[in-house]
UniProtKB/TrEMBL annotation:
Cell location: Membrane
Residues covered by the Dendritic cell-specific transmembrane protein-like domain: 1-170
Official protein name in the record: DCST1 ligase
InterPro entries named among the record's database cross-references: CSR-E3_Ligase_Protein, DC_STAMP-like, DCST1_C
Gene Ontology molecular function: any one: ligase activity
Residue span(s) of domain E3 ubiquitin-protein ligase DCST1-like C-terminal: 219-249
Keywords: Ligase, Membrane, Transmembrane, Transmembrane helix
Membrane topology: Multi-pass membrane protein
Pfam families hit by this protein: DC_STAMP, zf-RING_DCST1_C
Ligase is among the record's keywords: yes
Species for this entry: Rostratula benghalensis (greater painted-snipe)
Gene Ontology cellular component annotations, sorted alphabetically: membrane
Keyword Iron-sulfur belongs to the record: no
Gene name as annotated: Dcst1
Length: 249
C-alpha cells in the first residue's frame, strides 16, 4: 500500500523479493553455510586427484628407470678318450664313451613382468569425478529458489493463515518504519563510540592522514542515503533529520 511502499533502501535489504533472480542479502547466510559444507568434499576430491597424480608420476619413474634385461650364453662339452687296444681299454671305451656330451645354453630374460604399468586418468574421468561436486554446488544455489516456494505452498493449503501472515508482516514493517530513524540514530551513535583505532578502513586512514581528501569524498547520509552530506551537517531530507557524524563514512 501507499502507506508502506516504496520501501526505503535500508528496508529493502531485510525483505526477500520472490521474483528476483539474484540471491538477496537475507538469503546469503544460508547460501554461505551450504557452500561451506561443500568445502570438505572439495578438499577430499583435490586430495584424491593429487594422490593419483603423485602415484602415477612415481610409478612412471620406476617403470622408466628400473628396467633390467639379462642375457646368458654358455656351452658344455665332455669327451673321454681311452687309448689302447687291450680288452680293458675296449671295455672302458664302451662304458665311459656314453658319458660324452655336448650342449649349448642361450637365455634372454628381463623384469618387464615385474614392472608397474601405470595409466593416467583422462580429462573425461576428471570431469566425471568433479560433476557430482558441481551438481552439489548448483543444488545449494537452487535451494534458495526452492525456499521461496514455501510461502506459496503454505498459502495454497492454508489461505487464512496466509492472510494473518500478510497482516502481521505489514504491521511489522509499519512499526519498523515508525522507529526507523530512532534505530538508525542509535546505530550511528554506537559506531561513533567505537574506538578510533578499531575497524578503520583504508579510506578512513587516508582521510585522517590527509584531511583535504574529505572534500573530494562522495559522502551520503547513513539514515536515508542522501548523497553529498557535508561533515557534521544535518541531513537536508525533511523526513530524515539525521546528523551526519565523522565515524559513519
Amino acid at each position: 500500500k501507499r502507506t508502506l511502499l516504496p520501501l526505503r533502501r535500508a528496508e529493502i535489504s531485510t525483505v526477500i523479493f520472490p521474483c528476483r533472480v539474484a540471491v538477496q542479502l537475507p538469503e546469503m547466510k544460508n547460501v554461505v553455510l551450504e557452500l561451506l559444507e561443500c568445502i570438505a568434499p572439495l578438499l577430499l576430491l583435490l586430495l584424491a586427484c593429487s594422490l593419483d597424480h603423485v602415484l602415477f608420476t612415481m610409478l612412471s619413474v620406476i617403470q622408466e628407470h628400473s628396467f633390467v634385461q639379462y642375457s646368458f650364453q654358455g656351452s658344455h662339452h665332455l669327451s673321454v678318450q681311452v687309448l689302447g687296444r687291450s680288452l680293458m681299454a675296449g671295455l672302458l671305451r664302451s662304458s665311459i664313451g656314453a658319458l660324452n656330451t655336448s650342449s649349448r645354453v642361450e637365455l634372454d630374460t628381463s623384469n618387464v613382468a615385474c614392472l608397474p604399468q601405470p595409466r593416467s586418468l583422462q580429462w573425461q574421468e576428471y570431469m566425471d569425478s568433479c560433476l557430482p561436486l558441481v551438481l552439489l554446488v548448483l543444488l545449494c544455489l537452487a535451494q534458495v529458489y526452492a525456499y521461496r516456494l514455501r510461502r506459496a505452498i503454505a498459502a495454497f493449503y492454508f489461505p487464512k493463515r496466509e492472510k494473518r501472515r500478510v497482516l502481521y508482516f505489514y504491521n511489522k514493517l509499519l512499526r519498523h518504519r515508525q522507529s526507523f530513524v530512532l534505530r538508525q540514530r542509535k546505530l550511528v551513535a554506537q559506531r561513533a563510540r567505537q574506538h578510533p583505532g578499531l575497524g578503520l578502513s583504508v579510506l578512513e586512514w587516508c582521510c585522517q592522514c590527509w584531511p583535504r581528501l574529505r572534500r573530494w569524498l562522495r559522502r551520503s547520509c547513513t539514515v536515508c542515503g542522501t548523497p553529498r552530506i557535508p561533515q557534521d551537517w544535518v541531513c537536508p531530507t525533511p523526513t530524515c533529520g539525521a546528523l551526519y557524524c565523522r565515524p559513519c563514512w
